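Milestone M4 deliverable, item 7.
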Amino acid sequence: MAEPLTARAGAPAGLRWRLAWPLTVGHALVAPAGALMLLLLFGPLAVVAALSLSDYQFGADTLAYVGLDNYRALAGDRVFWKSLSNTALYSLAVVPCSAGLGLLAALGIHGLRRGQALYRAALFLPVMATLIAMAIVWEFMLHPNFGLVNLWLKALGGTPRAWLQDESLALWVLAVIGVWQGFGFNMVLFSAGLLGIPRALYEAAEVDGVPAGWARFRLVTWPMLAPVTLFVLVISAIKSFQVFDTVHVLTKGGPNKATEVLVYTLYAEGFEFFRSGHAAAVTMVFLAIVLLITVIKTRWLDKRVHYA
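Output delivered:
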């Protein structure tokens, strides 16, 4: 590789300064914004990591270094493991269902000759709505006595249920709400991916005798949607691990911790029990899990994705 002009022995000092000057000024101009970004991104993370190694309680004037005691306490905390398993079950239900329904909705709308924009807007409404407000609506719909769901179920000859008070049902009801709220966003992403597939590929498949329907979807559409699918799965997994609004409004983690999730455990430890050090340890575990999921999904699925 050619040696930079500024490093050549024969280059005049003035020329070396003039060539290096734009780079120096550029770094100087970018430095304040870069430092501010680093401070805003990594500063809070560093503070949380430090708090997780202390016995700090919210509002206290002092704190003491306790090392890994908070993490050891988490390892023996039944509520923490319950919330972790609930979060995993919630994600396993929400991620594939919201991605699958989003893909089916995108395919159905893409095949329409008219009204595509209307249907996309209608299915995207749950994404735009405030989730807390929608959670209150769901609370009325799922009411055991006068909720619309039980009224419809009774009209069809079924047995009304206490959907949010039943330990065996509450978490799955929240998962249904999560799918309802998230699949519209996935539908928009898949719709954009479908619009980006070259028409020539379908024409080539038709010339090669590939029948319309499942075979053409498997050989043309699905491989071309691989990058979008990877993005949808990663984003859906992260969002599902961040679930909090519906749990806080509808169940408060109950009944009997059946809907306790990691973010709600973090909130309860920090702002109800004021154990900020313990809450910081939960936060670090939560961030580590989200990072691990993202890395695994990206590394494993990226090898099966074709971007060209």
